[in-house]
Design goal:
The protein is of the alpha/beta class. It contains 18 helices and 13 strands. The strands form five sheets. The chain has a five-stranded parallel beta sheet with strand order 10-9-8-11-12. It has a two-stranded antiparallel ribbon with strand order 1-7. Strands 2-13 form a two-stranded antiparallel ribbon. It is globular, with a radius of gyration of 23 Å. The two termini are 35 Å apart. 41% of the residues are buried.
Length: 502
């Protein structure tokens, strides 16, 4: 999604109809205390006519939410009420995720969302294949979410008193909604408010009515939140707790995803290859599709008719964007990359996502190199996907579940799924995550004078430290989101221990 225009530094100055009934003055004083909190509204020159209806609908939802909150009892050792509402009980036992080089398995709390364990490397694999399937060394890092006593006492007080309530509306696709819900929980904690079950709105591109929480479900307009990436330690831990423990898919979707995993897992290791080849990705990136003038012309016309979807980077030429790594890798380029890193031709390749722009032609380069490409539609048996037809977020949830359990995950381009998957795979034991260095490899991909053997040697050397090894959130140049880089705030180097006391 394109970034909305930042109208104000807080929702108090540009009130949305979704917040007019909330007590203003307590929030105002709290916002002034926390410079790392900013909430802003997407710009609109005129409000839709449906806003009046939506406003009254939200009031009804809020009254329902308030009633639900008063029915929720929270003991001293439980999380605040907003996590209670977001966190149903575990539906299946946890799994241990083995780390390479004879390290101890990662053991998490029962509340953590855990995949099936990675496959051990087969004795029949070549040295190159064994290197490809081997999991990175986790260096002893494991989750650690021990909150300070001051934070725990304050949380218990907020949970008991419930004097302020926060309603938020989240937009976009599944992974964007997850990120916004994580933000919403932290914002509620900063404001010392109880969070009413977030409302999931229909996105213009996804056009989907799926819900993460089915209990209090209505379609409403939205806000965006923007938190500083450098929050206090307890709030960073809270982000991890929500992202990796509290947020869960509803049981029918989780159970179906688990079935797909077992159907793949029993046949051996598999790669989850997230190709970003959808029409809207080409529109937003400003890059050529590689499918010829006919397809490029279709994308060009959409860009011209929907300029609001474009970014400032489109002022660059296509060649400039490609050379600095802003364009998605196409199917053939990704196939060459994973082949050069040692992926065997017979490997199972799970492809999350929908139909790529260009259909089968867009996937031809991948299928020719790796014929065992499967999708959720191919894994499903008759009738299993029927409840989720035309529900994009539900389909994306299935893709997320299957991808999380993959032995190797490879995204072809940036995006919310890639960042959330990177952080989740790190948190559960540093499962292999190959992050293509697009800026560096594009020249080699286009150089026809390099032999395949030389290309493979270059790719292995170039990506030696881009395969899911522990990577700290902060660097000399930038600070990154803790849900994508959970070290060191949410992961510590220590032995097996009790991880969650809260």
């Amino acid at each position: 999604m394109a970034r909305p225009r930042n109208i104000s530094s807080s929702f108090i100055k540009t009130p949305s109809p979704f917040f007019t009934f909330l007590p203003v003055s307590p929030f105002t004083s709290l916002l002034n205390k926390f410079p790392y909190l900013r909430i802003h509204m997407p710009y609109s020159s005129s409000r839709p006519r449906s806003y009046l209806f939506v406003f009254f609908l939200l009031i009804l939802l809020s009254l329902l939410g308030l009633s639900l909150l008063r029915l929720v009892s929270v003991s001293k050792n439980r999380s605040p009420s907003f996590l209670t509402l977001l966190s149903p009980p575990p539906s299946h036992p946890p799994f241990a995720s083995p780390s390479s080089k004879n390290h101890e398995p990662v053991v998490l709390s029962r509340s953590a969302t855990m995949p099936l364990s990675a496959h051990p490397v087969s004795g029949n694999a070549t040295a190159e294949e064994a290197e490809f399937w081997a999991q990175p060394d986790g260096e002893g890092y494991r989750p650690c979410l021990d909150f300070t006593i001051q934070y725990r006492k304050a949380s218990a007080k907020i949970s008991k008193e419930k004097q302020k309530f926060l309603v938020v509306v989240v937009l976009g696709g599944l992974n964007q909604q997850k990120i916004q819900i994580v933000d919403a929980v932290v914002i509620a904690r900063i404001l010392e408010a109880a969070l009413i079950v977030p409302v999931l709105a229909v996105d213009q591109i996804w056009k989907d009515e799926s819900r993460l929480n089915r209990g209090g479900v209505l379609i409403l307009g939205g806000i965006y939140s923007k938190l500083s990436k450098n929050l206090p330690l307890d709030l960073q831990k809270l982000r991890c707790k929500v992202a990796f423990h509290a947020l869960r898919f509803v049981s029918p979707i989780q159970e179906l995803g688990d079935k797909f995993i077992r159907r793949l897992w029993i046949k051996g290791p598999y790669i989850a290859l997230h190709l970003r080849l959808e029409k809207d990705v080409w529109v937003r990136s400003g890059c050529l599709t590689g499918l010829g003038p006919k397809h490029d012309d279709i994308i060009r016309k959409i860009r011209e008719s929907q300029s609001k979807l474009l970014t400032e980077r489109l002022k660059m030429t296509n060649t400039q964007r490609r050379l600095v790594g802003l364009c998605p890798l196409n199917a053939l380029q990704v196939a060459r990359l994973i082949k050069s890193l040692g992926a065997p031709r017979i490997a199972q390749v799970y492809r999350p996502g929908g139909e790529p722009f260009g259909g089968a032609r867009a996937l031809q380069g991948l299928v020719e190199e790796f014929p065992n490409v499967v999708t959720k539609e191919m894994l499903a048996r008759e009738g299993e996907l029927s409840p989720y037809i035309n529900r994009s977020s539900a389909m994306a949830a299935l893709d997320y579940i299957v991808s999380l359990s993959s032995d190797v995950f490879v995204p072809s381009h940036g995006g919310n799924m890639g960042s959330t998957m990177q952080g989740h795979r790190a948190y559960i034991g540093h499962r292999k995550f190959v992050k293509a260095n697009k800026r560096a490899i594009v020249g080699f991909l286009e150089d026809t004078s390099i032999s395949e053997a030389e290309f493979g040697s270059i790719m292995k050397k170039m990506h030696r430290r881009y395969q899911g090894q522990p990577e700290k959130r902060t660097t000399k140049r930038s600070s990154r989101d803790v849900t994508a880089y959970p070290m060191p705030e949410c992961m510590c180097r220590h032995g097996i221990r009790s991880l969650l006391r809260s």
